[in-house]
Amino acid sequence: MTIGEPPLKLHPVVWTGKISERLIRPYSSKRYGVLLWLASVFPVLVPLSALWFLPFPYSLLSVYPLKASFSIRMLYEIISKSVPFREESRKYVQQAVRRDVMRANPELVRSAAIETLFESAVDGITSPLFWFLLLGLPGALLQRL
Predict the structure, then answer these.
(1) Domain that includes residue 17, residue range
(2) Could you identify which of 58, 84, 103, 128 might form a hypothetical disulfide with 140, taking C-beta atoms 3.0 to 4.6 angstroms apart as the criterion?
(3) Is there a contact between 12 and 44 (Cβ–Cβ < 8 Å)?
(4) For every residue of 31-85, which 3-state class applies, written as one string?
(5) Torsion-angle region of residue 83: left (phi > 0), alpha (psi -120 to 50) or beta?
(6) What tens-digit pLDDT sequence spans the chain (145 residues)?
(7) Considering the domain boundaries, does residue 1 fall inside one?
């Protein structure tokens, strides 16, 4: 945790999201969805899977990419800017939630921020660690998609 996260332009979670956004089409088939998933995963996963073949201990080399998959800083920045509630809190919370909070009362905006914090803790920290234990770094990164 002391090393920090990579900048957004180097963040593996951001890479896969940007690839997916460019390829996504509304009302696509399941086949296209599988193709989209593969196209999003392989450009990130293949280079990181190469760590298995390096002479250094795999577990040591996979620590930083695993930690980078957590997105703790991004989550902290969004949630910390929304508490205490100010009118601009709505736009920060809206970055993290799907529901419309722009017209919600302050209590609902705070509630959305807290729900997002805990949901993201499971999705962004606990789950990658679980899949890392089962399948290594590829499992942790695949879970993020």
Answers:
(1) 8-143
(2) 128
(3) yes
(4) HHHHHHHHHHHHHHHHHHHHHHHCCCCHHHHCHHHHHHCCCHHHHHHHHHCCCCC
(5) beta
(6) 455 667 777 776 777 677 767 777 666 788 887 887 787 777 767 777 776 677 667 667 677 777 777 767 777 777 787 777 778 888 888 877 878 888 888 888 888 888 888 888 888 888 888 988 887 777 887 776 6
(7) no
Report the distance separating Cα 34 and Cα 70, nearest Å.
24
Domain count, the chain: 1
Residue 2 belongs to some domain of the structure: no
Residue 33 lies inside a defined structural domain of this protein: yes
Non-local CB neighbours of 61 within 8 Å, separated by 6+ positions: 51, 54
Which burial class, exposed, middle or buried, applies to 68 when counting CB atoms under 10 A from its CB (0-12, 13-18, 19+)? buried
Specify the DSSP class assigned to residue 126.
I
In a domain, 3, yes or no: no
Q: How far apart are CA 131 and CA 140, in angstroms?
A: 5
User: Is the pTM value of this prediction over 0.85?
Assistant: no
